[in-house]
Amino acid sequence: MITVTDLRKSFTLHNQNSAVIPVLEGANFSVAAGECVALTGESGAGKSTVMRILYGNYLAQAGRVVVNGLDITTATPREILTLRREVLGYVSQFLRVVPRVPTLEVVAEPLLSLGVAEDAARERAAELLTRLRIPERLWQLSPTTFSGGEQQRVNIARGFAHRYPVLLLDEPTASLDAQNRETVLSLIEEAKAEGAAIVGIFHDLEARERVADRAIDVSVFTPRKIA
Amino acid sequence: MTPLLQVRNIEKRYGVRIGCADVSFDLYPGEVLGIVGESGSGKSTLLNCLAGHLSPDRGEVIFDTRVDGPRDVRQMPEAERRLLSRTDWAFVHQNPRDGLRMRVSAGGNVGERLMAVGARHYGDIRQTAGDWLTKVEIDTARMDDRPSAFSGGMQQRLQIARNLVTGPRLIFMDEPTGGLDVSVQARLLDLLRGLVRRMGLSAIIVTHDLAVVRLLADRLMVMKSGHVVETGLTDQVLDDPQHAYTQLLVSSVLQV
After folding, report:
1. ipTM score assigned to the predicted complex
2. Widest CA span of chain A, in angstroms?
3. How many Å apart are CA A8 and CA A26, to the nearest integer?
4. How far, in Å, are A69, A215, B87, B234 from residue A64 at the CA level?
5. What is the DSSP track for B96-155?
6. Which of A79, A93, A100, A144 to mutate to test the interface with B (most CBs of B within 10 A)?
7. Which one of A166, B3, B47, B118 has the fewest beta carbons within 10 angstroms of its own beta carbon?
8. What is the pLDDT of residues A202-221, one digit of tens each?
9. Closest approach of chain B CAs to the CA of A99, in angstroms?
10. B255: which DSSP letter?
11. Which of A14, A59, A113 sits opposite B236 (nearest CB)?
């Protein structure tokens, strides 16, 4: 589902003496359907950068990144948006929402934008919020006022609302208690069983061992000579 | 799919000074395009050229009309262009006073647009106007009040109702949340997002507020000195800006 070939990424900071910061070079890997791959490497090695490139959020300087047949490095914004709507899900560490929108709507939105009927979308959203132990009295409130852990769970519910064939998870179990962590791990296992290709960053080692089939050490892609 | 709007090499000069130049893009149905840049970067000039408020010196603005398919708006007879701007197009001004008739009641402001496209039954017009006031969260009890008695946020919502009542396919917005209280901004953003999705609207939003485009726009165009310096997916342009000016713009936003 994901094939990355000769990926190179650097940042050019035009306003800071045009400093060029090489981040990734010669990155090659692939992820099959039904497989969960953990990105590893120390902080700053480029794990999040890889995730963001897979999502089309960062541009690559060279190489190919093919997700479900679409090369993200050359795709138009419209193609990437369609891919994100239908195929490619992303659970980031931060919840970013329009203020004032009720939690239930926030979670149902990925389904509504796919054209799923409002009732069915809300039902699925309610099911996930229940599983993730967000009390029903909070569903009509905006998640912007929720605690960190609650926001994280809303974010996860939103990320799993549509059954994406490809899923990117950035520390999905961070800041969760044991019960909720367990729920998230089962959600990941269910998605795998349904054939989703999953790429994740897990600092939680036990979680990684349990859901990940293998690990990719991102520091291998760190450019050798840092000028 | 045919783009709803195809813009080709638009150029507008004020004497020797460039308003905007070499601007080309396609906008597809249901897509929201944000145009950002500092004051004087040409974004409002461009928007006014596209919407027909200004006449560009060069270029084409091709709109996919319901009846005849894609046509260059600039070549249309004036009457036809005016009909288009009353039916398929809408324009939301930064200052609601520019888009509303201040001496006409709120209901009348909305109903007037319906009458302009042929509605004649008073009861129906009042009913539809009332529905739209409800959609933009204005109490129908205020229907017979003049907009001058409304707050800035209400006026802006009324302007949106007036513009959307005829079911346009393309909406131009010039700093729609500028000058509004942040709490009112959030409400307006939520409203616009819902309307865009439910009505399948395409929109072009000019703003200097990066938070607004992040939440509303699918795609972003960054302008500087009348030229487009960078385009792309909104989150990509904001999170991994390539051009020096965009990097400056993004890094200059104060963190709350």
Report:
1. 0.90
2. 56
3. 6
4. 11, 21, 44, 21
5. HHHHS-TTS-HHHHHHHHHHHTT---HHHHHHHHHHHHHHTT--GGGTTS-GGGS-HHHH
6. A100
7. B118
8. 999 999 999 999 999 999 89
9. 6
10. P
11. A59
